[in-house]
Write a structure and sequence with these properties.
By secondary structure, the protein is an alpha/beta fold. The protein has helices at about 20-35, 75, 150-160, 165-170, 180-190, 245-250, 255-260; strands at about 5-10, 40-45, 50-55, 60-65, 80-85, 90, 105-110, 110-115, 140-145, 205, 210-215, 220-225, 230-235, 240. Helix 3 (about 150-160) crosses helix 5. The chain is globular and about 45 Å long.
């Protein structure tokens, strides 16, 4: 019997203000260590520039945001089974490795939570804040196999991107900037009969851009956050989607994470 190949895939585009390649290298290093599989990093060509505003604790910054092409992951992956992760998702244990060999063809998160308790993602249950019933999916972490069903989801994801304005009007969400989470949500629902299936059994752990990782050691994150207008510090252990990428790139936290494995 031929053994199935498995690995981690990371996609990035260049950005003048955020070094996504450096983030990808760190994320891949951690993934290889904790999941005991190889990783592949692919640089995507810039096909469309979005503008995105990031809200930090000390102010607001608007940057060019190159986030198109994640729908090509199926074709870009060299593995039979792939875990696709964002470059700002940092693995800290082997939990995701348990999905290799899954009976499912495609898995993603249908819920994200802020580990600080801020509940900042409570409005992201649906694509439109009024609750139009179209459930949200997250493109941050995805498991997929190289088969027809997974390919159909990625192909539909591309189709949604190419017709994003139409879907925005149909479902009532903002059509600018393009969001992979929204496009995946639509494709995933269409290809799974609008059922809440083919999702991870655990929720996506994250911190928002207004929170910061201020230190790291012994597999523990030290996080500074605001809760009800009060500044707090907490420790957290586990995988983490760090939406405030600057707090990783512009501090010695990067080197501490790099040297931890």
């Amino acid at each position: 019997m031929t053994l199935k190949s498995k690995g981690v895939l990371l996609l990035y585009s260049e950005n003048s203000k955020l070094d996504y390649k450096r983030l990808a290298e760190l994320s891949a290093r951690l993934a290889e260590y904790y999941l005991d599989v190889p990783s592949t990093i692919v640089k995507l060509d810039v096909v469309q520039e979005n503008i995105r505003t990031f809200r930090y604790e000390d102010g607001i910054e608007t940057i060019v945001w190159n986030n198109i092409g994640r729908y090509d992951a199926f074709n870009l992956s060299p593995y039979d089974e792939t875990i696709l992760i964002d470059t700002d998702y940092f693995i800290q244990n082997d939990n995701l490795a348990n999905y290799f060999g899954s009976n499912q063809d495609f898995l993603c998160h249908n819920s994200s939570y802020d580990v600080t308790g801020n509940e900042i993602f409570r409005h992201n249950r649906f694509l439109e804040s009024g609750g139009n019933g179209f459930e949200m999916r997250w493109a941050t972490v995805i498991y997929f196999k190289k088969n027809k069903h997974a390919k159909k989801i990625f192909d539909t994801w591309r189709t949604v991107y190419e017709n994003y304005g139409y879907y925005g009007r149909l479902l009532g969400f903002r059509r600018n900037p393009f969001r992979n989470d929204f496009a995946l949500s639509i494709a995933h629902n269409i290809c799974n009969g609008y059922a809440n299936t083919n999702t991870f059994v655990h929720n996506l752990p994250a911190i928002s851009t207004t929170d910061s990782v201020i230190d790291y050691g012994s597999n523990n994150w030290l996080i500074k956050y605001n809760l009800r207008n009060s500044k707090n510090i907490m420790r957290y252990k586990g995988d983490l989607h760090v939406m405030n990428k600057k707090c990783i790139l512009q501090t010695d936290v990067y080197n501490k994470l790099w040297n931890s494995v």
